[in-house]
C-alpha cells in the first residue's frame, strides 16, 4: 500500500505538473500563434487568390494576343485570265475592242470569317491604264474562298494612244498587267477587328493570234 501511494503520488504530481506545465506554455505563447496562423492563412489565401486572378488575366490576355497574332493574311490567286473579243484591225486600228476576264480568288485561312469590300482591278498596257473594273463586296467564311469575277472592258482609245501598240501587234505579243486590290476585315471575339488590304499584280504576255496567255507571273502584297 505505501508502495502504491508512493507510486501514486509521483504520478499524481507528475500528472498535476504536466497539465500546469502544458497549460502554462500554451497560455503564454499559443494564443498569439493561433491568431497569427489564422491571419497568415487569410493572408496566404488573399495572396494566392490575387495571384490566381492575375495569372488568369495574363492567360486570357495571352490567348487574345496569340489569336490576334495568329490571324493569317488572306491569299489572293489568279486562277485564270482570258481575253475576249480581241478585235484589232491592223489596217484600221480604231476598231479595236478587247475584254479581259480574270478569275481571281481570295482565300481566307482563318477560323474567323473575313468580310471583303469592293474590289478594284485595273488593267495596264505598258504602264498605261487601259481599263478598270469593280467587283462586288462579299464574305469569305472560315477557311473559305471568296471569288472575284473580274471583267475589264478595255478603253480602246487609251490602248490605241500608245505608240508601242503597233510594234507589239506586229510582233504578235501584248504585255498586259493586272492590279487587283481588295480590303477585308476579320472579326474575332466580336470586338477585335483585324484589317487587311490585299493587292496582287500579275504581268502576262498575250499572244495576239489566238488570244492565249503565253506567260504570267504574279506578286502579292498585304497591308495590315
Ligand atoms: C480592217 O479594216 C479595213 C478597213 O476598215 C477593212 O477593209 C478590213 O476588212 C478589216 N479587216 C478585218 C479583219 O476586220
Ligand atoms: C466589242 O465587241 C463586242 C462583240 O464583238 C461588241 O458587242 C461590242 O459592242 C464592242 N464594243 C466596242 C466598244 O466596240
Ligand atoms: C466566274 O466566271 C467563271 C467563268 O466565266 C464562271 O464559271 C464562274 O461561275 C463565275 N463565278 C462567279 C462567282 O461568278
Ligand atoms: C498561241 O500562239 C502562240 C504563238 O503566237 C503559240 O506559241 C501558242 O502555243 C498558241 N497557243 C495555243 C493554245 O494555240
Ligand atoms: C502593283 O502595280 C501598281 C501600279 O503599277 C503599283 O502602284 C503597286 O505598287 C504594285 N504592287 C505590287 C505589290 O507590285
What can you tell me about this protein's structure?
The chain has four helices and ten strands. β4 (119-125) and β5 (128-135) form a beta hairpin. The strands form two sheets. Strands 3, 4, 5, 6, 8, 9 and 10 form a seven-stranded antiparallel β-sheet that branches. It has helices at residues 2-29, 31-69, 156-160, 165-171; strands spanning 75-84, 99-107, 114-116, 119-125, 128-135, 138-140, 145-153, 173-188, 192-207, 213-223. By secondary structure, the chain is of the alpha+beta class. The chain folds into two domains: 1-67, no CATH class; 75-223, Immunoglobulin-like, CATH 2.60.40. The chain is rod-shaped. 35% of the residues lie in helices and 41% in strands. Bound molecules: 2-acetamido-2-deoxy-beta-D-glucopyranose (5 copies).
What ligands does this structure carry? 2-acetamido-2-deoxy-beta-D-glucopyranose
Please provide the count of β strands: 10
Distance from first to last alpha carbon: 103 Å
The biggest sheet, with number of strands, parallel, antiparallel or mixed sense and barrel status, is:
7 strands, antiparallel
Helix percent band: 25-40%
Give the number of domains. 2
Region (Disordered): 1-32
Transmembrane segments: 43-69
Keywords: Membrane, Transmembrane, Transmembrane helix
Pfam family, one: LEA_2
Amino acid at each position: 500500500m505505501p508502495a502504491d501511494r508512493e507510486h501514486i503520488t509521483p504520478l499524481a504530481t507528475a500528472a498535476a505538473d504536466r497539465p500546469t506545465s502544458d497549460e502554462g506554455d500554451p497560455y503564454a505563447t499559443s494564443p498569439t500563434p493561433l491568431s497569427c496562423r489564422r491571419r497568415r492563412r487569410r493572408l496566404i489565401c488573399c495572396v494566392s487568390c490575387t495571384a490566381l486572378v492575375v495569372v488568369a488575366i495574363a492567360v486570357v490576355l495571352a490567348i487574345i494576343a496569340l489569336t490576334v497574332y495568329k490571324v493569317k493574311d488572306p491569299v489572293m490567286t489568279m486562277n485564270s485570265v482570258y481575253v475576249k473579243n480581241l478585235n484589232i484591225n491592223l489596217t484600221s486600228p480604231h476598231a479595236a475592242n478587247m475584254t479581259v476576264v480574270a478569275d481571281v480568288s481570295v482565300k481566307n485561312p482563318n477560323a474567323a470569317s473575313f468580310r471583303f469590300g469592293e474590289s478594284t482591278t485595273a488593267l495596264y498596257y505598258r504602264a498605261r491604264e487601259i481599263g478598270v473594273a469593280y467587283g462586288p463586296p462579299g464574305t469569305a467564311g472560315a477557311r473559305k474562298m471568296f471569288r472575284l469575277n473580274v471583267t475589264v472592258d478595255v478603253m480602246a482609245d487609251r490602248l490605241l494612244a500608245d505608240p508601242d501598240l503597233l510594234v507589239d501587234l506586229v510582233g504578235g505579243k501584248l504585255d498586259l498587267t493586272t492590279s487587283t486590290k481588295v480590303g477585308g476585315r476579320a472579326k474575332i471575339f466580336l470586338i477585335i477587328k483585324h484589317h487587311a488590304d490585299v493587292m496582287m499584280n500579275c504581268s502576262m504576255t498575250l499572244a495576239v493570234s489566238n488570244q492565249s496567255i503565253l506567260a504570267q507571273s504574279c506578286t502579292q502584297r498585304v497591308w495590315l
